[in-house]
Each structure stands twice: as C-alpha cells, then as structure tokens.
User: Fold these one by one.
Assistant:
Number 1:
Amino acid sequence: MNFVSNPFQQFLKFLIFIPVLLLLMGKSASAENHFRVESLPRVVKQGEVCLISIVGPPSLKSIYVEFQGVRFPLAFSEQNGTYEGLIGIDMDTRPGKYEVKVIMTEGGSGTYLGVFSLRVEEVDFGIQKLTLPSAMVDLDMKTLERVDKEEKKLNSLFRVFRDERLWRGAFIRPVEGDLSVSFGLGRIINGQRRSPHTGVDLRAEEGAPILACNNGIVVLVEELFFSGKSVILDHGWGFYSM
C-alpha cells in the first residue's frame, strides 16, 4: 500500500519550542505596514513541508507566498488570528538558501511585497534496485495514454486550494504495519533510472481496515494504474493524503 508522507506532524511539535520570528515590511501607496512572519522550521530538508504563519490585517483580499516560482496560497486562521499555509519542498530542490516572496493585496489599498529566507538541506534518500516484468516498465501506447490522463487529473485535483483547515491535531498512520519502503527512495528498475518513491509503504494483512490519517473530505476514489485502488482526502490548505 502506498501512502503520501505527512512530515507536517513533526513541525507542529516544534511550534511551541522553536518559534522563528522574522520582520517583514510591506509598503502601499497609503502607509507603511509591518508584518511578522513565522517559518517553521526555518531550515527545511528536501521533500519536507514548511509551515508559514503571517500576522497582518484581517482585511487582506488575498495573500500567498512564492517559492521557486510556485505560488502557495495562505488562509486566514480565525483561531490564531494569522494567515497560515504550507510550502512543499520538492525532493530535487537543490540545497541552499532561498528567498520566499510574500505577496498581499488589500481591497483598494494597494499591494504589499516582502521577502524572507528559507534554507533547504540535502537528504540522502538512498537507492533501490528492482527487476520487474518488462510490460510493467516499458508501457505500451494504450497504457501510456491512461497514465498521462490520470497524471493530468491528479495535477488538476492537487491545484485546488481549500481555505478551510480541516485537520485537527496530529496525523495518524492509516495502518499499524511496519514501514517497508521509505519516502524519497531513488529507483533503478531493470537497469533504468525511474521516478523516486513519493510515498511510504506500510505492511498490512489483506482485508485490514485503512483509516483516514486525519479529518478531511474524500475528493477521489478510483483505480489508478500506478497506485491501484486509491482514495484521496483533502485536508484543507492544499494538504492532501492518498
């Protein structure tokens, strides 16, 4: 069974102990405004998730951060009185220090721009060598068309951003089985380098119940070529589990 990794849980534990406060100044045509930005953690590893929290006026029309050319929307948290959201760090992001742009618009009052830094550290994910039947590796045209269609469908699904945060507390394992294949493992199949493993594999007996790892809305139930029978949950703020 293949499940999307949820590294966000560890960052919630850090929230009380290592708050990192940065001062971000935004300017509009009318006045100078100060925004406090919190990045947890400030140093993030390849393939992990970073929580962004910004204190600013609740009247903002929209707010998002931009990392490596990708926009990550933020949502207003009534509970904390802050704008919060998640940045996903791709596994192949080069290690180094990056600038993250914060872009905010306020109805009729102008646009605020700011930048804060985020450091990405390298991870040795390891390599796995597999030998599989050629029909599972060198796909025929009909199968390639199916894979392409499913990939576009998933990409479109994951671009949907739900303002509401649906998850509560820590995430749980969907099954209690041992970890058999870890996240990010590079794969060489039949001597060819293939896409790395983007989930975690947990052992379970056939027929064992599979639990939702947290509160969410089921947005897809379908038999997919690579992942088989799949259920995808939207936990809000662009956070999904599969």
Note: Residues 175 and 208 are 8 Å apart (CA to CA).
Number 2:
Amino acid sequence: MADAPDLTASWDPKGEAMRLWGADPCGGAIAAHHEGSAEFFAEVDRLRYDQYAPWLRQAAEFGAHQGERVLEIGCGMGTDLAQFVRGGAITFGLDLTTRHLGIARARLELEGVSPRLVRADAECLPIRSGSLDVVYSFGVLHHTPGIEAAIQEIHRVLRPGGTFLLGLYHRDSAFYWLNTLLVWGILHGRLFRDGYRRLMGDIERHDHTDALPLVNVYSRRQVRHLLSRFSAADVTAHHFEAGHLSYLEPAVRGVSRATLERIGRRWGWYVIARATR
C-alpha cells in the first residue's frame, strides 16, 4: 500500500514539498527566537538532539568524518550539516527549497565557514562522479518520487569505499501501524474520508499551508533492496516515543530513555542505514 509513490498527472510531489517547507521550514517552529539568530539555532539544536532524537548524534556519525568531503541531501536549515562542520568535515549542502537554503546559509556563517550550498534535485546531482567521501540524507528521500534514481546518483558521486548514511520513515513501526493507520486512519476515519495520501502527507507539520507532500515508508528489507548496488549495508531502526502508542501511551509513560531506545530498535519510526560504496 505504501511502498510506491501514488502519482497522478495533476499532483506534483516535488512542488508540494517545496510549497510545504517554503511555508514551514523543517524543524523551524521556534517562536521564542528570531529565525536565523544564534538563539534560534541553539534552540533548534536543543529540541532536535536533546529532546526529539538524542540517538541521532551517534547514528549520524557527526564527529567521525574529519577532513572528509560530506554532502547532505536535503540539508533543510543546515542543522545536521552544522554538526558535521563542528566535527571537522568539509561540507556541502543540497536542497530543493529556497527558504531552507537561506536559513542554512545563515547557520553555516554563524559556524564560521563559507556555505557550499546549491538548490538541486537529489535525482540528478550536479556533482562529479567519485568525488565525495560521505553522503548523508536523513528524513528526506521518502519524499522524492524517484528514490531509486536518487540512490543511483548517490552511488555515482561517492568514491569507492565511501559512506552513505540514510534515514527513512520505517514501515514496521508503532507510529505507522498503530498511531497513523489504526487510530487516525481507521478509528478517526481519515483513511476513508481523506485518503491514504493525505493521511500520510499530514504527518508533516502544516501550520501555514495545505501542501500535500509525498510521504513513503520502508521496511528494513526494502531498504536493503534499495541499497543492493552498495558493497555492504547495515540497517537498524531508531526512535520510539510513548505518544507513538496513541491511546496506550499511559502504559509506557515514565519509562526510562534506555527502555524507549530498546523498543525503538524494533518498532522505531526511522529506519537507518549505513552503506559502503
């Protein structure tokens, strides 16, 4: 049901993605601080790495690529890209959304580096073959209708032995099956009233637009298949919150972070892959 993009001639998923994140930058709902200020970025970091995904710093290997050429596909506001900068990497960022790139530029300038950013499509990378050590893309490629083409391009631009770090939404997760499909889709009737595409599209935050982005989910097996051209791939799952159980949330409320992380390795909302070219 959710394995392949649901496309029609009248729906432009890339245009809808740009419309969504042009209106509501990903991770940017920080009302207490002016967008682009040092205080704004500090709060974005706190919410992302301390509150939302404390496991991400390790999974993304921010500090493990000193001196290497790292490209982030879908760099958003430059939040993760800045962590690679702090780890000593030579960074490049790519995104479809102009507003994202403007915020990312401000972020990298605050980090003291010259931004190397380009507006481009992951399915056709404007990059020389074999020129990168690492390609990183977290929470992005499940929004592109041509994920196979994008991964082929990533394979092309990596040097032999280079690393691809990928994060996608996980089909075999509590959030997808219980919260999204069962509770919101069936019990609340949204699957029948609004359809699967809108049910999934509304997973993304919509404060200032009715945009309808493509949102796909992938099992571990499907991710391994997507990465079959790579020489090796390690695939894991991460990110479980009590709220992913919807009405059953009180049953796990107050459990330790370590316990949540253990549950996340089976039922987490993100499937994470580390592949070698």
Note: The chain has one domain: 13-276.
Number 3:
Amino acid sequence: MTRSFNHIVPGQMERFVISRFCRLFAQALDEGATFLVVPAGDLQVTRDFVDVRDVIVAYDAILRRADTGAVYNVCSGRGVLLFDVVNQLSEISGVGFKTRIDRSLLRPTENRMVVGSRELLTIAFGWEPTIPLVVSLSNMLGYWRTH
C-alpha cells in the first residue's frame, strides 16, 4: 500500500497548483512580460512535492519487492511553502511577481502542513528522490513554453 503525496511533472494538468503557476510564468515569458500578478489561494501552506519520474522508480520498487501489508509513503520528506515555489519560478524565469488572493482558490479547512516521511521506503529499497524541485519547476516551465 502507498500513501502518495503531491506529485509534479511536466505535462500535468493546470488544475494542480504547481502546473498552474508554471503556466502563468510561461505565458508571461511568451508575452515578453517582466512582471506578473499571480492569483493564488493561501501561499503560506507547506506541501511535500516529489517529481513523478522519481515516484515511478519508487512504485516499481514497491511492486517488485514490497512486503505484504507494508505501507510506504511516496514523498520527498521535505516541506516547501507554496510562496517559495512561486518565488523559485520567478528566479528561474526572471519574471517578477506579486500575489493577489483569489477567494475561489481558498479552502475553508486547509491543512497548514502536509509533509511525509519516506523513511520506510528508503530503508526497504534505498529509494530517495533524485530530481530537485528546481529541476522539476524548470522542466514544467519549459513544458508550458512549448504547449
């Protein structure tokens, strides 16, 4: 059994927050903008993001070698503020930003912090994520620039 945390990957639908942010920065770049207003919900929440290309390696190990009944968290084990994600996209793209609260993106009952422990997965299979968040973000930004 797995408990999967937030997966990110180039080509992900923009209904997912990271993909939506990447699309906004890509659009700004394509329009030659140097500044962007980012409509967002609560950017002061912390999430655990892991690139789906790493997730596939974890799932493969689990499917091939997992103990029956074991539960594995498929996660990076690192928490990242959503605001920091937007800031990293700004640094990668060179597009400045400010945020604007979009009430339709706020959740009435928001978990402030969702971060997992990958300890069992690492102990059992030696798995750990290999793709840094900045690489995932750069790849996703590149995807949106070409699509």
Note: The chain has a mean pLDDT of 96.
